[in-house]
Design goal:
Layout (H helix, E strand, L loop, with lengths): L1 E6 L16 E5 L4 E4 L8 H5 L3 E3 L5 H4 L10 E3 L1 H6 L8 E3 L6 E3 L2 E8 L7 E8 L2 E5 L9 H5 L4 E5 L7 E5 L2 E5 L2 H11 L3 E5 L3 H4 L3 H13 L4 E4 L5 E3 L7
Parallel strand pairs: 3-4, 4-5, 5-6, 10-11, 11-14, 14-15
Antiparallel strand pairs: 1-2, 1-16, 2-3, 7-8, 8-9, 9-10, 12-13
């Protein structure tokens, strides 16, 4: 399985050469490309990319706004996500049921509900191709079924909105926002995940010198035994099975 980071910028106004487009991931496993998320600044580019399908984590504009003009392919998401983008007039849709695996272009997806937003409930995806797997969750506060989501994955692709302190608020007794990279690395260490890559980068990363923020995150991971890096637009991740590393 090859994962290409099409975009790595979160819902912020600033951007850099390394983090120019909203977060989106392209996955290829020998039978076409599946795109995960399609933010507002992908509204024209998605037609040129022409993926086999687009899978959405949730309905916020930086993840689904690029579909306002329709889609060149089927769009998959939870019922609440598809309902939120119904006004986009997407012709082909497919409802994703949490914790029910489905197949696309040689890839297996399983959606796990995560804490992130009340208005746009989100999921993360455990994505598998043969013996390799990753968990992709660009926006979250927590994963309620964390052990099942992260067990024996080859890589965790998580929320890069904040490095050491999360951006978390409490609304109607529910936590919303973004867990810190530090906290997510702790989850990886607890579940035996050796590799973590962070996308959906916030201003703390995008505004800073790339070498400085990369070194800081590598050090956070190294302290607890996790290889931690920041994704850049256009970066490729070729996953190898755990047994081959």
């Amino acid at each position: 399985m090859v994962a290409t980071f099409l975009g790595t910028r979160g819902e912020i106004d600033i951007r850099s050469r390394a983090h120019r487009r909203h977060s989106a991931l392209a996955l290829t496993a020998g039978d076409g490309t599946v795109m995960v998320d399609c933010g507002l600044d992908w509204s024209r580019a998605v037609w040129r990319l022409a993926p086999r399908a687009i899978v959405l984590t949730h309905a916020h504009d930086d993840h689904a706004g690029g579909l306002r003009g329709g889609s060149p392919c089927p769009v998959l998401g939870t019922a609440v996500t598809l309902d939120a983008i119904a006004r986009f007039g997407i012709a082909k849709q497919r409802v994703v049921e949490p914790r029910t695996p489905f197949e696309l272009a040689g890839l297996s997806f399983e959606a796990f509900p995560v804490e992130h937003s009340l208005r746009a409930p989100a999921v993360g995806y455990r994505i598998t191709s043969g013996p390799t797997s990753l968990f992709y969750v660009p926006d979250l506060v927590a994963i309620p079924d964390r052990h099942d989501a992260l067990a024996r994955i080859d890589a965790y692709v998580g929320d890069g909105a904040a490095i050491a302190r999360g951006i978390i608020r409490n609304r109607d007794g529910v936590r919303i926002g973004h867990a810190s990279i530090r906290e997510q690395l702790g989850w990886c260490a607890a579940e035996g995940v050796a590799r973590a890559i962070f996308t959906h980068c916030g201003s703390e990363i995008v505004r800073a010198d790339g070498r400085t923020s990369s070194a800081r995150i590598r050090a956070l991971g190294r302290a607890i035994g996790v290889d931690a890096t920041i994704a850049r637009d256009g970066a490729r991740l070729e996953l190898e099975p755990l047994a081959d590393r």
